Amino acid sequence: MDRRQHRRTGRTVGAVGILLGLGAGATGCAGSGAAAEDVKGPGDPVTALHRAADALREAGSSKAGTSMEMATGGTRVTIRGRGVYDYRRRLGRLTVMLPEDPTGAAPHRPITELLAPGALYMKNRGAGVPADKWVRVETATLSDGNLVTGGATDPYAAAELLRGTREAILVGRTEVAGTPVRHYRGTADLGRAARYASAGHRASLAAAAKGFATAEVPFDAYLDDQGRIRKLRQRFSFANGRQKDTVAVASTLLLYDFGAPVDVRLPDAADIYAGRIAEGDSSGSG
């Protein structure tokens, strides 16, 4: 699949891709972990957020629920997903449900997504792709780094984005699904996150830093007493070239059942579709 093909498939799953029309982006730079100058002490909100991705890696795995809301031109679209994620292997599987078509068309089939370092695999993509084939997209070629393209933010990428936190406050103690958590509110910088991200997400976050209308990402994060993310809401903003306005996307992530078994196997080369994707397709699941 050539670079133009990646751009077509990267326009995304169903409603999000049709309305966003995201294109190719840039690659990233080196670096790993939070910078030494960022460490301000164990009780500091910024430090806790920088370490959230490491806490997930220590947890090993979890189940995940996702929700992505987009508002543009008075229209609001919500896409939901559910699945599992292995934080040590950076592999996840989500079943993504597209919203009902307002015209009353047949319901969209759920889309299966496999999340891997540097790649997104989609099945039931539609747009002329055979039902038994996968579409593979290199996330570094997407102008959003796949933070919104797939209709769900990769859980580990969302956590690594917090490595770019510049300022944050502790709002207070609360609960998420019965679990005591600390609620933090702050702003992360995508470029900074890319510098300190793991190798698998550097290029994607760097692409997002250049592709969004602003590299600043406001967020609300809820961490449990082990520093693990239980809930994370991030708000992205980018310029809609067609409408010449700004599109707002809110991604919400819920993590639970830490240690849950995860068996994610990436498709064989023979199972990946190498043909042409129908442009502008809005039928089925694509």
Task: Kindly describe this structure.
- It contains 7 helices and 11 strands.
- With 286 residues, it is an alpha+beta fold.
- It has a single domain (3-256), classed as outer membrane lipoprotein receptor (LolB), chain A (Clam).
- Strands 6-5-4-3-2-1-11-10-9-8-7 form an 11-stranded antiparallel beta sheet.
- A hairpin with a 2-residue loop joins strand 1 (61-72) and strand 2.
- Helix 6 (190-196) runs antiparallel to helix 7.
- The longest helix is centred in the last third of the chain and has 13 residues, at 199-211.
- The protein is globular, with a radius of gyration of 18 Å.
- The chain starts with a helix and ends in a 30-residue tail after the last strand.
Task: Describe, in short, the structure shown.
With 286 residues, the protein is α+β, with helices and mostly antiparallel strands. 19% of the residues lie in helices and 36% in strands.
